[in-house]
Structures are given as structure tokens and as C-alpha cells.
């Protein structure tokens, strides 16, 4: 198990685009009846992962991630995961001792761009690049699992 | 991925007890909103597994099983799985080219004993030992995931 401490922001300009090349992520969720657990299958390039995540407490969240055969992941995405799948291109941008991950969504979440940063501890100070906009760390609708249930394209109010 | 073809029966006598020693199984489910996928975490002795199962079609069901660290499994059972957990002792009984697995449940499913046999193909002939009772292969309430939601002790009509 690892514990993930994450802050999440909107972006307010395209200045991040020149800073990194993107990698395509394709992932799906098996939606759960309780609000505690998230079950995710993700394909990144030639690799695939099955991940369980626990409840968020503040910025922290327990995470259990296991590599699985990509052929399994394809079948699980196709036959077991809820729709829509989440498709996005992730740009990794190292800046000032942290790594920003900018996710540009496509498919039913096209138009949404989120920037996330993983921290060592919750009170870690963080220098915000000029392209970083409003913080949305606590806002449930930006969770990827919720973008599967209520994709961005269906939002009546968009930031 | 493997495909599991299974038949399930009640037992009608204790004649199976002298045929095998039991192993304790402790497992839990993260209940899903769709009826297609099952997410199970299981501890057997020193080993632990994370398993996804697909929808049952006839007697067959797709299964994706991955070994995980037992310490992870304990935390997942404790913090992410729905209640009650399933606790049972499994007796493996090889007979006439198949292996019968007799599950004697405890905890909130105490009193229930099920015998399962895994087959190579759906039409495989099967010799039934004298201690095998009614077949319950298609009966959803005997699925372990449903014994988590509606445990045997709460049933008003018991076989």
C-alpha cells in the first residue's frame, strides 16, 4: 500500500504545452456501491495496472496498485468496466522539485484539462506556475471516477 | 484470463468429512453497481489474491486472478470491503477425475455447506457422490458475493 497526497488544479493558459510530451492513458472503473473504494484498470503504453483506492482523508488516499497483463486489461476494460471509459493524454512536467501532471481529457470529457501534483506530506509548500488556475482538490466532480459517471461534456456549468 | 465452469450443490450428509482436511478462507467483496463484475479479495493461508470475475453465462464465467501481498489484502479486507466478510473452511476432495470443494461457512453464514466442482467443459458428465444433495448452480443467493449481502443466517427459508 502507498498513500497518495495530491493537489489538483484547473489550468488557465497553454504555457505548459511546450514543456512536455504527452502519453495516452486509457482507463476504466468498476463502480462500487460504497463510497469508500475505487476499482480502476489503466493502460499506459505497453503497461497495465489494476488499482484499488481507499477513501480520501484530507488530501491523502490509500492506494493499492498491481501490474497486470495488458491483454487482461483490454478485456476487463471492454467487458467489466462501466461506461464511458476515461481517455486522456498526460504530460509530466518536472518543476521546482515536484512533478506536475497535466491531464488533457478526450472523448466524453473533451475540453477538460487538469493539473495534479503529488506531495510528500500534506503541508508541503508548493510554488504554482503561471499557467495554474483555480484549485479543485476537494471538488468531487473532478475525480476521474466521477468523470466516468458524469462526464465533462454533460456539465451545464463549465469552468 | 481464465474461464471458470462450475457446478454447485448442497450436501445431504456428513460423509465427506472424513475425506479431507480443511483450509480456512477469509474473503471480502467490494460490491459493484453493475451486475456484471465481481471484485474479491481472498486470503488462504499465507497467500492472498485479488480477483475480478465477469458475468456468468450458463455455467461459465471469466476470471482474472492476481496474487497480491498478504499485508495489502488484510488492509483491503479491513478498510475497503463490504460487510460481512465471508469466512469458510474449504475441503478439497479428489474423486473420479474431478476435485470437489466443500465449503463450510462460519460467521454470518454459519450453517451453510456448499459443494462445488470445476469442470473442463459445460457438458462434462459428472458422477455425484452419495453425500451430494440438490444442485443450486443457477441460484444466485448461493453466490459468495450474495452471501456477503444477504448472509445465510438471515434467510427465512433454509434448505
Automatic annotation (TrEMBL), chains A, B:
InterPro entries listed in its UniProt record: CYTH-like_dom_sf, CYTH_domain, NeuTTM/CthTTM-like
Catalytic residues (positions): 29 (proton acceptor)
CYTH domain ranges (all copies): 2-149
Organism annotation: Rippkaea orientalis (strain PCC 8801 / RF-1) (Cyanothece sp. (strain PCC 8801))
Name of the protein: Adenylate cyclase
Domain of life according to the entry: Bacteria
Amino acid at each position: 500500500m502507498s498513500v497518495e497526497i495530491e493537489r489538483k488544479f484547473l489550468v488557465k493558459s497553454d504555457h505548459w504545452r511546450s514543456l512536455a510530451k504527452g502519453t495516452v492513458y486509457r482507463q476504466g472503473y468498476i463502480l462500487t456501491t460504497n463510497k469508500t473504494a475505487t476499482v480502476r484498470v489503466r493502460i499506459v503504453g505497453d503497461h497495465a495496472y489494476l488499482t484499488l483506492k481507499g477513501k480520501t482523508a484530507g488530501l491523502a488516499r490509500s492506494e493499492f496498485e498491481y501490474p497486470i497483463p495488458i491483454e487482461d486489461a483490454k478485456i476487463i476494460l471492454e467487458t467489466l468496466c462501466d461506461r464511458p471509459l476515461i481517455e486522456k493524454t498526460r504530460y509530466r512536467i518536472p518543476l521546482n522539485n515536484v512533478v506536475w501532471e497535466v491531464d488533457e481529457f478526450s472523448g466524453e470529457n473533451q475540453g477538460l484539462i487538469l493539473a495534479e501534483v503529488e506531495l510528500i506530506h500534506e503541508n508541503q509548500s508548493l510554488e504554482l506556475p503561471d499557467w495554474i488556475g483555480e484549485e479543485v482538490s476537494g471538488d468531487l466532480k473532478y475525480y476521474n471516477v466521477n468523470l466516468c459517471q458524469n462526464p465533462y461534456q454533460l456539465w451545464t456549468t463549465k469552468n
